[in-house]
What does this fold into?
Amino acid sequence: MGIFKKRWFKISAVVVVLILAVGGYFAWKTGFIINKISGSKNSALGTLFSDGAAPQSEEGRVNILLLGMRGANMPGGGLLADSIIVASFNTKDNKVAMMSVPRDLWVQIPGTSDRGKINSVYAHWEGGGKGQGIQKIEEVMGTVTGLKIDHAIVINFSGFKQLIDTVGGIDVKLSKPFSETQQFVEGQECGGTFSLPAGTVHLNGDKALCYSRARVQTNDFDRSKRQQIVLKALKDKLISLGTLADFSKVNNILNIVGENVKTDMAPEEMKGFYEQYANMKDADITQQVFENSEKGLLEVPAAGTGLGYVLIPRAGQDNYSQVRDACKNIFSQPAQ
It folds into this structure.
């Protein structure tokens, strides 16, 4: 009996040591990744065990700008923003809003006398060693939305695909078949032609990216709506118990984030943000896409301006009053 107890004690001790080792590894790695994507020089464990400091909220909400793009050194305008979404968090009322701004919005490029599409702002100030892309796109988005943009998170296409594959893909519901037969022909991206059937469809990383990028046979606004749906599905999978309890998945997610994500959040802000907003269970989610439909707040300028296809506020160029009102009052809209 004594030998049996000693054996089980040794086994239990080994299990405890393994658990502590795994926990210590993840603690160190999480701190290391947080420092890497934020550019911090703190020690890995020092970052993880520091006191969290969530971004200061304005009027009870925190606004995080999400940017998706091909990625640095990629052909076809790697630093041009393909997705521009403001995610607004209201913990008091347990509400989240996602507001998409089209990449063709014609804006003043900050710090210059030039104008351009809003998707070029990050590229203009990030490329050539300037390294100010996040700061300048936050400035422009603050002007457009009237919101205090607290921070931004940038992810490239490769990281987006890898995250979805790591969590086992995502499911989306289509009310009708989806098809894009023109946009990807040149270069044979997405197989040249891309289509999905109606109903609940399971998407891997490649298919989710194609679905999120397709726009020629629909439009940029419809694409923005699809991007929001895909992001919500990815968020649900990332925080699911099946993901968080899987050592391999969590390890892969940390690796992917470290290689493909950039942010201006300080490590303590990321930790504080997670601690504060991870408790938002079953939050009401409102989605808004700014567009030039009949009831939209944007429009194509009158013919003869020589601008090509761009969008300006319906209230007039640089007059973002209607867009700002919509952003300010976003939580008064019904959740979707």
Notes: The radius of gyration is 22 Å. The chain is about 40% helix and 20% strand.
